[in-house]
Amino acid sequence: MRTLVIIPTYNERENVGAIVGRVRASVPDAEILVVDDGSPDGTGELADALAATDANVHVLHRSGKEGLGAAYRAGMQWALDAGFGAIVEMDADGSHRPEELPRLLEALRQDDDQEGADVVLGSRWVEGGGVVNWPAGRRLISRGGSAYSRLALGLPVKDVTGGYRAFTADALRRLRFERTESQGYCFQIDMTRRAYDAGLRIVEVPITFVERERGASKMGGGIVVEAMLRVTVWGLTGLPHRFRRRPAPTTAETARRA
């Protein structure tokens, strides 16, 4: 499958060159789409310079900062219009290690022994996954957000809020990503619940999440509040459907043994 890695950026000039280079080295056949929300620090211009020297790097410029969800929606539509078969979400700050991307793509693709997944989640909270250099407060927010989302929405997924993911093009079409309205990491929760409700095959692959070394995190209190409110509403409105029997996602190791 032709693979596109979508990297949203806002004021990531210090990081975008390095992350693009690492992706190109780790998965040479993959293409990259930098979706820049009008970064005032010149991230978009630097991305243009990278694209000018590498035909596998593309840039989508947006007029202003509209949030992570809007950037991914635009990038996903661009990917489908261009005919890509596998679409990856990845942060620009290096927290999602490109060196782990081949394992996510391996789980996505079909082989002789095991049916490929529709959605692959890079998971910090399954066996073999973890985080590096996270303060206790950030760890608590992430684990707590995933736990609350699992409980409220009935999702048998360990890492509901993670943003390192791969989808087949058909999966994106089936879960109707363009109808999402969430921003921040709530977009990731929304995509997870839609994939599960659509009956897609979800596999969690362990990753190590590394806290950014340069630049400022975009995580803020408003993002957390949005997630709590939306998840609560989704949980209450979805109660009549909570008891339908659906297959649980697996880890990559479980899938190999199946």
UniProtKB/TrEMBL annotation:
Keywords attached to this entry: Glycosyltransferase, Transferase
Listed InterPro entries: DPM1-like, Glyco_trans_2-like, Nucleotide-diphossugar_trans
Signal sequence segment: none
Protein's UniProt keywords contain Transferase: yes
Glycosyltransferase 2-like domain span: 5-175
Presence of keyword Transmembrane: no
Membrane spanning stretches: none
Pfam families found in the cross-reference section: Glycos_transf_2
Record-linked SUPFAM superfamilies: Nucleotide-diphospho-sugar transferases
Sequence similarity: Belongs to the glycosyltransferase 2 family.
Protein's recorded name: Polyprenol monophosphomannose synthase
